[in-house]
Amino acid sequence: SSTMSLSEAEVQSARGAWEKMYVDAEDNGTAVLIRMFTEHPDTKSYFTHFKGMDSAEEMKQSDQVRGHGKKVFSAINDMVQHLDNSEAFLGIVTPLGKKHATQLKIDPKNFRIICDIILQLMEEKFGGDSKASFEKVTNEICTHLNNIYKEEGW
Fold it and tell me: Are 80 and 137 in contact (CB under 8 A)?
């Protein structure tokens, strides 16, 4: 469905939690990707230019890893800004989902992986309340992405 399942209060607390992460968008985005590539090495296969990188240190120094980390965080930030407007939210999520499904052919389970890592990092840095308030947002994002994948025939 196109309606968002978050109350106004939930939207506000999710935004507050996300803002703390987004202050260091590049560093935190990079940390999330490094953790994903390290804990789920198969995810690296989608990024041809990251393939040869094995050490976290090497990835941390890579402009490409940093650039993509920042890109992921910017996209989520756009979604977070539109949590109270399902039309605008879907306007961001839909093309992103389509691109990952049709052009990049990324397995949709990887969205859940990356969202879970973001939640982990949030909890480590800012505690369980931050994680809890953002969990609904990641569920919302993953649900919509999965719906787009289904429409694209996955």
Answer: yes
Verdict on whether the full-model pTM lies above 0.85: yes
CA distance 27 to 61: 11
Distances (CA, A) of 77 to 18, 22, 117: 8, 7, 16
Q: Give the up-direction half-sphere exposure of residue 13: CA atoms within 13 A in the CB hemisphere.
A: 14
CATH of 8-152, one of 1.10.490.10, 3.40.50.300, 3.40.47.10, 3.20.20.80: 1.10.490.10
Q: Measured between alpha carbons, how far is 71 from 80 in angstroms, rounded to an integer?
A: 14
Per-residue pLDDT of the chain (154 residues; tens, 9 = 90+): 345 789 999 999 999 999 999 999 999 999 999 999 999 999 988 888 887 888 999 999 999 999 999 999 999 999 999 999 999 999 999 999 999 999 999 999 999 999 999 999 999 999 999 999 999 999 999 999 999 999 999 9
Neighbours of 90 (CB within 10 A): 18
Alpha carbons 147 and 113: distance in angstroms, whole number = 17
